[in-house]
Every structure is written in C-alpha cells, then in structure tokens.
C-alpha cells in the first residue's frame, strides 16, 4: 500500500512539475515576443496612418511591460531540475535507463544473477553517496543565501539533490531485492516489450 502511494506520488510530482514548467515557459515566451512585436506593430500603424491600430498596439505594449515575468525562466529551470531528479528515480523503478549488458551477456546464465545484483548495488551505493553529499551541502548552505530572481532560500532549491538521490537509492535497493527474489529485472522487461512491438496473448489466434 505504501509502495503504491509512493509510486503515485512520484508520478504526480513529475507530471505536475513538467506541466507547470511548460506552461510558465510558454507564457514567458508569448509575453516577451508580444511586447517586442507590439512596438513593431505600433510603429508600422503610425507610419501607415492607422491611429486606431497604433493605440491598440501601444496599449498592449504598456499592459505587457507592466507584467514582471523576469522570474519565469528561473522558476522553470528549477522545476525541470526537480523533475529530472525524480524522473531518474522513476527510470530506475521502470527500467528505462540505458544499460550496457555486453559483459552480462558474455557470462554464463547461471552466473548472471550475481553480476546484475552487483551492478544494482553499485547504483544504490553511488546514489546514496550523492544523496549524503547533497544533504551535507544543503545543511551547510547559508540561510540568508537566496536565488537571484525569485529570492527563494537556496536550501529549498538544492533540496532536490538529496531527496532525488535518496529516492533513486531506495529504488535501486527495491529493484535489487525484487530481482534477487523473483529474477525479474524491470530493465529486461522494458527491453523485451518495446512500445512498437505488439504483444499477442494467444499466438494461435493471431491472423496469418
């Protein structure tokens, strides 16, 4: 039950972050080009004797420049970074990370399981170390240090490093335990059934 809640929370965080970052980036781009193009339109209307269009363009420019979106790019960047950290943990759980299995395929089948377990434990060790170093870094940050545009505390922004890395470490350990018990590796399952290959439950019922 707790694992299902964690899975859904992980997925919803990723979806929410990427959706919000996309919307913010779109609005910021429209705002920037809208302000610049309204000036061009106002000058063109003034040169061609279209005072009504000139007034509309100048009004649009004044309205757009009154909106401060200098923080949008910074916020979108932070959202994508957080999304990437949690997305990496999701990749471990679902087995979508790129893996090099040349050495594993060279080993006889009876000896492959320990090799895969060792590789997964190396991933857990690496992400655990990164998470610990990230936690120390966040702890030692100056409490008065803030981001340039949003003026948010820096520790809040860099908190994604220990949280995402520890979540990846947990996922590596989870995959290792499941693989040791069942022999099922999510990476192998992902490779075996790619999206472009149809899966036929009953081959005898498939049309010739």
Low-confidence stretches: 192-208
How large a portion of the residues is in β-strands, by DSSP E? under 5%
Q: Name the helicity range.
A: over 70%
Listing every helix as H and every strand as E from the N terminus to the C terminus, the arrangement reads HHHHHHHH
* Rough outline: elongated
Structural class: mainly alpha
- Kindly, what is the distance between the CA atoms of the first and last residues, rounded to a whole number of angstroms? 43 Å
How confident is the prediction overall: mean pLDDT?
86
Oligomerization = single chain
The Cα radius of gyration reads 26 Å
Task: Count all strands and give the number.
Answer: 0
Major sheet description: none
**How many helix segments?**
8
Descriptive overview:
The protein is mainly alpha-helical and 208 residues long. Helix content is 75%, strand content 0%. It has 8 helices and no strands. It has helices spanning 2-47, 51-65, 72-94, 102-106, 109-140, 154-158, 160-182, 186-192. Helix 1 (2-47) packs antiparallel against helix 2 and helix 1 (2-47) runs antiparallel to helix 3 (72-94). The longest helix has 46 residues, at 2-47. The protein is elongated, with a radius of gyration of 26 Å. Residues 192-208 have low confidence and may be disordered.
């Amino acid at each position: 039950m707790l694992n299902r809640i964690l899975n859904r929370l992980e997925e919803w965080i990723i979806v929410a972050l990427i959706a919000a970052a996309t919307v913010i980036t779109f609005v910021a781009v429209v705002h920037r080009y809208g302000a610049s193009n309204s000036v061009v339109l106002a000058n063109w209307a003034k040169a061609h004797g279209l005072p009504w269009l000139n007034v509309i363009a100048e009004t649009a420019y004044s309205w757009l420049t009154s909106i401060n979106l200098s923080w949008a790019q910074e916020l979108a960047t932070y959202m994508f970074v957080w999304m990437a950290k949690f997305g990496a943990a999701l990749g471990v759980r679902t087995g979508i990370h790129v893996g090099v299995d040349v050495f594993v395929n060279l080993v006889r089948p009876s000896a492959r399981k320990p090799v895969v377990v060792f590789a997964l434990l190396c991933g857990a060790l690496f992400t655990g170390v990164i998470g610990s170093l990230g936690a120390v870094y966040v702890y030692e940050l100056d409490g008065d240090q803030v981001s340039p545009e949003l003026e948010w505390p820096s520790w809040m922004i860099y908190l994604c490093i220990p949280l995402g890395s520890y979540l990846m470490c947990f996922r590596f350990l989870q995959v290792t335990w499941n693989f040791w018990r069942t022999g099922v590796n999510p990476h192998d399952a992902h490779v075996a059934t790619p999206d472009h290959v149809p899966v036929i439950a009953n081959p005898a019922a498939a049309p010739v």
